Amino acid sequence: MPSSQSRAVFVLGGARSGKSRFAESLISDTGLDRHYVATGRAWDDEMRERIAQHRNERGDLWTTHEEPLDLTARLAAIDGDGRAVLVDCLTLWVTNLMMAERNVAAEFAVLTEFLPKAKARLVLVSNEVGLGIVPENRMAREFRDHAGRLHQMIAATSAEVYFIAAGLPLKMKG
């Protein structure tokens, strides 16, 4: 676990729980220069449409950065005072790392070491995947395990942690 605390905010919840909307409001309320780091990949037409719709909904006040793999490098490149950065979402990043056969533990360590050094206001969004049944196949179990470990690491270093259910935020830390 990281030893130092960051100013980051971690927003966790299930699919369609309202976590992204809540995270966007946290960024909008800062009045800072808004940056959105999207980790999702458009594997098919439906996903391309979703990405386009989300980008249109955010509007021109956001600068969007698409980064499926090298998340920490992208965050370091756009880091700076006067900026607020939303990362959506960490579980898609985990999927991308696994599919690219990257060293997941090493990537997690680099990210959690960066967070306390960041100058920008960071809000990180992720899907909670550990509340259901044990997945039936090895890859799904590995994904769940990786996501759970990452969530613990991010929560440990974050200044604030929220769990979102039915659009309602529950503040868990900070």
UniProtKB/TrEMBL annotation:
Keywords for this protein: ATP-binding, Cobalamin biosynthesis, GTP-binding, Kinase, Nucleotide-binding, Nucleotidyltransferase, Transferase
Any one Gene Ontology BP term: cobalamin biosynthetic process
Keyword Transmembrane helix attached: no
Major enzyme class: transferase
Annotated catalysed reactions: adenosylcob(III)inamide phosphate + GTP + H(+) = adenosylcob(III)inamide-GDP + diphosphate; adenosylcob(III)inamide + ATP = adenosylcob(III)inamide phosphate + ADP + H(+); adenosylcob(III)inamide + GTP = adenosylcob(III)inamide phosphate + GDP + H(+)
InterPro entries found in the cross-reference section: CobU/CobP, P-loop_NTPase
Active-site residues, as the UniProt record annotates them: H54 (gmp-histidine intermediate)
Pathway(s) of this molecule: Cofactor biosynthesis; adenosylcobalamin biosynthesis; adenosylcobalamin from cob(II)yrinate a,c-diamide: step 5/7; Cofactor biosynthesis; adenosylcobalamin biosynthesis; adenosylcobalamin from cob(II)yrinate a,c-diamide: step 6/7
Source organism, top-level taxon: Bacteria
Positions with a binding annotation for GTP: 13-20, 38-40, 55-58, 66, 88
GO molecular function, one term: ATP binding
Record bears the keyword Nucleus: no
Listed EC numbers: 2.7.1.156, 2.7.7.62
Role description: Catalyzes ATP-dependent phosphorylation of adenosylcobinamide and addition of GMP to adenosylcobinamide phosphate.
NCBIfam families (alphabetical): PRK05800.1
Family: Belongs to the CobU/CobP family.
Name assigned to this protein: Bifunctional adenosylcobalamin biosynthesis protein
Source taxonomy: Bacteria, Pseudomonadati, Pseudomonadota, Alphaproteobacteria, Hyphomicrobiales
